[in-house]
Amino acid sequence: MTRLPLLLVALTGLCASGVAAETRVTIATPMASPSWAKLERQLLADNLPACREFFQKYYDDRGYLQCFVRWGANDGPDDAFENFNHWPELHALGASDEILQMYLKAWEGMIKQYNEAKTTDVPAGKGGMYYRDFSAQSDWMHHGEGMQNFNRMGMSVPNLPIYQERARRFASFYMGEDAEAQNYDPKVNIIRSMINGSRGPLLRKATALDWVGDPFDPEGFGLVHGEHTYAQFLEHYSEYGDVVGDNFLNLVATTLPTDAYLLKNEPKYKAWIVKYMDGWLERMKQNNGIIPSNVGLDGKIGGADGKWWGNAYGWGFSPVNPTNNRRENRNRIPRALVGFNNALLVTGDQKYVDAWRTMMDSVNSNARTVDGKKQYPSMYGADGWYGWQNQPWNVGALEVWYWSMKPSDLARAGQGGGWLAYLQGKDPSYPETALKRDLEAIPRRVQSIRADKTAPDKRLADNQLNYNPATISALVQLMLGGIPPSVDGGLLNARLRYFDPEHKRAGVPEDVGALVSELSDTSTTVTLVNLNSTTPRTVIVQGGAYAEHQIESVQVNGQTQPVNGRTFTVELKPGAGATVTLKMHRFANQPTISFPWDRS
Asked: Are strands 20-27 and 567-572 parallel, antiparallel or unpaired?
């Protein structure tokens, strides 16, 4: 009997340089259907009816959120848009097109809803809580949370005209190009206030009203932040006044020029990102390696009062919680990681990773010993370091390892169980465990949706956030070799992405499973399988979420073929599968959001 070859490779279409424009790999080796692949397909499928039920309950035919519409950091516009967290990633992984249709309808509906909604007392919202399709004014903790879906929807609809137009328009708000939104000062290279938006920066002290929104009677509402009265809302934000000048939270704003750059690689967007981020790197060098949270309108660290740790959400921000009368540490340093990620993505320069690593070392160098035990700081104020904890300050340790792939960074990120242990070959049961965990979460959230009897006029925008059934963590880790996106509004970190050339869409085709089992600086190991026993499937494999990684070669069972490109195509025969090793050069390419078949 003639044996089917393990790997058949056809190279088609040479470019002018003689490098293969496309590598096609045919996998014909039969593979018993792995349980992890069945679980992946079940998870992709089970998300759909759950998401549909969520959409039908909380949104009307216009795509408007059925809630009591308010302005505010607790329950405002950002929360409304957060209700679709992870839906863009879910579709880009391979879930039904109905997921895409629902969140696009809701996105457009809420844009209109919040453009129409106006405040009576809060100055910035009197002409619309959203203005020109973007939040009129807020900080980038909340901007980032509200922009998650927009920043990631491009993975599925890169050619949608309104998406492209908004990406460029939103970027212009932060690049000094928009006459109404002069958020950026190019002379001193700063974003002029921590509170900014489509109406420009807030250049005075913020009031509690600016943060909380118009007066209302909270009686009968589900208040999820601990306050019980409107007076407590105001008291909560009484110490949030210092916002003028640049703040590390504004590094999240670099995502908007990054979105625009991903469209056509127009140089001005990359240039702005590099200029702005390099300005922050210089400030870190001047500040013992630590990113300041207070930069004055003159561009100087510490502003008028000289406090580099100042500003709301800064290193020294520990306001009183009115519900317990205790000071609580609330710096938001982790959000700044987004800017370092964007700069790395568009330049491939590891200096941005090095800067964050240096900051971790600098913070931890201030450790103290109490009763023979080391303690590490997490906050800094007028009296020096505080916020002591027993573990080293390792904010961003996972990201630093993921971006650098250095063993020393892996040690800092943790050697415990879970995904990192699996990637090191120490926990082979992790894929099934993680996928089952996510599958079990879906019916619990559906139960919460059904149990929610709140009337729409007594429902706040954030009341149903925890009912959102979209569940992607295990899929992102296992299928993409990626870090599940957080709420900060950044882009997707992934070693691989997949496309369905037959249906011209993002994500794995029907019946296909993918399992990334090893990651290193120069290689990726992934198993691809077709669970369909009668129909072949074709999948395009891409290096990186945005084609930023170059795939140099592909190897199956000792047979190696060159790729020398961003992607290669795999034909999976019925019931076939194989483990594939990719040799890669990470961050070698200018990133792009375009689909493989649309690239020149």
From this structure: parallel
